[in-house]
Each structure stands twice: as C-alpha cells, then as structure tokens.
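Q: Given only this backbone (279 positions), what sequence would you predict?
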C-alpha cells in the first residue's frame, strides 16, 4: 500500500490526506467542488506551518508531506491502493461514489468509508466485491486525535482488516476494531450523551458551559458533549441521532426540539459561527 486516495476535501477529508502524507504515503485528494480541494490543501499547509512554528513538526516533514500531496480527479483516486471516502453522511451518495470508483479501481484496492454511523455492509451492498469495503472512522481534528475506529462488516475480508490496521498504525493512530452495528462504539455512546446534554439545556438544568465543565472536570472528558456537538456540527449529529433512534428503536437518540430549532435557524456550531457557543 503506497498510494492513498481521499474523496471529499472537507473537514475530515483534508485531515485524512494530511496524516497520510505525513506518514510517507503518496496522496491524491479530490472533491466534487474543485474549490473545496484548494481550500483543503490550504488548510493542510496552514496546519503544517503551525506545527513547524510550535516546534511540533520538523520543517523537512512538512515539506515532504506537501510534496506527497496533490489534487486529482476521481479517476486518479481510483488508481490508488487505499481509497477513503469522506463525503457527507448520505447512504446513496457513498454507494454511488464507490460504484463509480469500482469500475476502474485495481482488484487489490481497498475501499474505506469514513462514516460515523451508517452501515458498512449497506454501503458495500451494491459492489461486485463487497469484501474489500471497511469502515475507517476518523475523529476531528484528524491530525491531533489519536483514535481510529475500524468497522468490520460480515463481508469484510481478513486481509483487508489487517492492511487497514497496518495503515492506522503507520499514521500514528490507536486502532480499535468494532462490529458493523448502528453507531459502532463511539457514535452510539457519544451521540446518546450529547442528546441528553441538549435535553438538559432545554429543560434549564444548567448552562451549556456548566454541563460541559461537569463532564470535563468530573469525568475527565477532554471536551464537553455540547462543545463537541458544536465542533461536529448540529446538523450532522441531528441526522445521526435520527438514524440511531430508528435503527436501535431507542428514543434516547431522538434529537430534542431545541436541537431541531437551532438547525432550522442555521445555528450549526463551529462551522456557522454559532451553536451552543459563539465561535
């Protein structure tokens, strides 16, 4: 495995491209919007420059990573050994992208989906070779967060899992392996906690800041559930909650009305400048 293709140059995609390039892989980044690729590459450069300024990244490593990273089209990505999609959480979109890539991808290529909740088996369902599909759930910001949650469907081949575990170790992540169940391990626990925190705000139990502080200081969470919801995006988490509530038959995941109202007003968190916090 030498060439990594990343589809989707947004928050997660450019981060995945960055850590892969820093690990010595040749990386091709693509997006349906060419401007998004330019923005993504610019953010990678900014992250690396900041790392050099702080003394956390060697200048030579930055230069090597930037040299290994390039923009390309879907055909260039399809020629890679590991193809990671990081597009929005829409099942039909992910299925269409992998179906298109499969037409020209080499037989050995691994297809990885950066879904945080959707069924890996469903994403792989329409492919001629579903055995090469696996889940690689990264966390934001990708270049800082240590975890890589690898999701294995019943159809995923053992050699595919082994190869992705090696990839995760090479990019410096701690890898956990989880069965393809709704919400996996992280989203199932994290979204449930986040929804209850929003209900607490809705009921006037405490302020967002104090609820977050309770979990940060009382339970040693690095980020409170409401600030994390802002960072992920209220719209993203709302859709995940709706999916999990239905898939698991558990109302604990149902998005509270406060969340729905905030999304309707465009208060999506960090990306919009306002959510439970002002960014």
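A: Predicted residues:
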């Amino acid at each position: 495995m030498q060439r990594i293709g990343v589809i989707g140059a947004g928050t997660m995609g450019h981060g995945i491209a960055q850590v892969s390039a820093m690990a010595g892989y040749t990386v091709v980044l693509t997006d349906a919007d060419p401007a998004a690729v330019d923005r993504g590459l610019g953010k990678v450069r900014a992250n690396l420059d900041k790392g050099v300024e702080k003394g956390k990244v060697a200048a030579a490593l930055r230069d090597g990573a930037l040299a290994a990273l390039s923009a390309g089209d879907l055909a260039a990505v399809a020629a890679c050994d590991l193809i990671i999609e990081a597009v929005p959480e829409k099942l039909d979109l992910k299925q269409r992208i992998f179906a298109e890539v499969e037409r020209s991808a080499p037989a050995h290529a691994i297809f990885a989906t950066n879904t945080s909740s959707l069924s890996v088996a469903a994403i792989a369902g329409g492919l001629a070779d579903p055995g090469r599909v696996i889940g690689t759930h990264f966390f934001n910001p990708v270049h800082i967060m240590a975890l890589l949650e690898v999701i294995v469907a019943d159809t995923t081949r053992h050699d595919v899992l082994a190869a992705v575990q090696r990839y995760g170790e090479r990019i410096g992540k701690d890898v956990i392996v989880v069965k393809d169940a709704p919400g996996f391990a992280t989203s199932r626990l994290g979204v449930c906690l986040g929804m209850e925190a929003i209900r607490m705000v809705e009921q006037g139990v405490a302020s967002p800041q104090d609820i977050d502080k309770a979990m940060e200081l009382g339970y040693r969470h690095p980020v409170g559930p409401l600030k994390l919801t802002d960072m992920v995006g209220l719209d993203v988490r709302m859709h995940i909650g709706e999916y999990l509530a239905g898939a698991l038959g558990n109302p604990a995941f149902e998005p509270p009305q406060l969340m729905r109202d905030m999304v309707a007003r465009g208060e999506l968190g960090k990306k919009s400048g306002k959510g439970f916090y002002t960014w």
